[in-house]
Specification:
Blueprint lengths: L2 E5 L8 E5 H11 L3 H46 L1
Length: 81
């Protein structure tokens, strides 16, 4: 994975940033899109991140539910004895 430096010639963004070559290529192509197309692409990318985060959160909650149920079973068994 090679790292390259890209310029950020956007309003409100100054300087450069080190990114992978594939990110630099995609950024270059996306920068040439019309504003509405760039906004649509940005929205799609953000939604894809949200979906990944939601899946991770659901898995974490499932683990927590299982942990709490096991703890509940232990307490219930102790109170019966």
């Amino acid at each position: 994975m090679s790292i390259v430096t890209i310029n950020l010639p956007l309003v409100g963004v100054e300087g450069t940033r080190k990114v992978t070559r594939s990110v630099a290529e995609l950024f270059g192509k996306a920068s040439n899109l019309e504003d509405t197309e760039r906004a649509e692409l940005a929205g799609l990318l953000l939604k894809s991140l949200d979906a990944e985060l939601e899946a991770e959160q659901e898995a974490a909650w499932a683990e927590e539910i299982e942990r709490r149920l096991r703890q509940f079973d232990i307490v219930a068994q102790e109170s019966i004895q």
